[in-house]
Amino acid sequence: MDETVRVYVGTDRSQILAVKVLEHSIKRHTKLDVVVHPMLDLPIKKPSDPRNWQRTGFSFSRFCIPKLSNYSGKAIYLDADMLVFQDIAELWNIDFDGAKVVIQEEIPEKHQNTQNKLGAPAKRKKQCAVMLLDCERLDWKIENIIDDLDRGEYDYDTLMHELCILDEKEDIKCGVPFKWNSLEHYDENTCLIHYTDMATQPWVSCKNQFGYLWLNELRLMLKNNSISMSEIQQETDLGFFRPSLVRELKYGQMIPGFLQPLFGKSNEALDKKGEFKPHQEVYRLKKIRKKAMKNYKESQLIN
Predict the structure, then answer these.
(1) In whole angstroms, what is the distance from residue 237 CA to residue 149 CA?
(2) CB 3.0 to 4.6 Å from 57: which of 12, 72, 288, 291, for a disulfide?
């Protein structure tokens, strides 16, 4: 009997439909038995130091995977803002070579430059947004990890970007190629595109040059009844998706190529008229975090 591929996806409520699109793209490219687990609203304690608070509603979720897997077998971690184009068996079958986790290789230099892309960092850094985990050998307990953050054993950046809770030489293998976490890039070799720049994710912006790939997946889901237009409209009504999305799904492919720029501009105008603001909850919490960080810093100076 074939092994079940367990995929745990970090998400918040605003991206739960994006998880469905990701799941659809995974399953239609593989013959393996795949089970996708959206990790939504896990009970994770907030660190006492606001500098160590989660940057999204699910930043720490990946550390819950071994426990969610009953510390057995292996699992894949993905973010919700992704789309798959090749058989996930290739990712699933990467050899651990004695390590406990497999994360992304160093990003090729040509993909580090963001060329002043809207909403992008000045330079792309290696991420742990795609991970292969040996759950049997990971004794992670999120409450202990947060406690160590509170004790100052490490900080948010070293935890999230360096996985400092593991031995760098013995436990971590940098073996996930860029094509399996292709940051805002797509070509004939891409296996997984990561819409990592929140401001231009296809469901919140018309300005992503590779957004059409996500829209095409969504159109396919509408065609095979994996999703309904009413579900998409509901996300729009809740303010999670841009107002122009339904219009683009319905008419985008009918617009001649030379009129596409004009169609895009009209969609942007529709979103602006609707006063759409992407990821409102994330940015609301970011403001709270920044204020808390300022207050925390001032209190430390006083003490």
Answers:
(1) 38
(2) 12
